[in-house]
Write a structure and sequence with these properties.
By secondary structure, the protein is mostly helical. The chain is 76% helix and 0% strand.
Length: 134
């Protein structure tokens, strides 16, 4: 399965889960169970989702490499937003950067590095290295 197909599937699932988490948080707030002071409920839901996914990957037998499509998609979105680049071009930049890493590191090493750094950091490095040639 290609990165594009995997990432679309993961992204669609992520969006459904974040939407459900947001609905649950709002429902709990309406019932008086919690108080949400943020105006970004989806941001809270996204943070919860990411922490659960990270913990799941730590505790399962599934290799961390399985998270690569999810991680790459996060970096594509970050690069696109941060540097005002179309998503298609951002995907090319991120994939080129990833493929350069593959010349020197295993997929597991890359996944470990990507999990320990923020999408912002990797997007910045990918953009500067591939787009600006620095």
């Amino acid at each position: 399965m290609s990165f594009v197909m995997c990432s679309k599937r993961y992204l669609a699932l992520e969006e459904k889960i974040i939407k459900k988490l947001s609905e649950t948080l709002i429902s709990l707030e309406e019932k008086g169970e919690i108080v949400i002071t943020s105006t970004n409920v989806d941001g809270i839901s996204s943070a919860i989702f990411e922490s659960v996914l990270e913990e799941y990957l730590k505790e399962t037998e599934e290799p961390i490499e399985m998270s690569i499509p999810y991680l790459l998609e996060k970096i594509v979105v970050e690069l696109s937003q941060r540097f005002d680049v179309e998503v298609g071009r951002a995907s090319e930049i991120v994939n080129t950067y990833y493929n350069e890493w593959l010349k020197y590191k295993s997929v597991q090493e890359i996944a470990d590095a990507y999990w320990h750094e923020t999408p912002q950091e990797i997007a910045r490095r990918a953009y500067y290295h591939i787009e600006l040639k620095t």
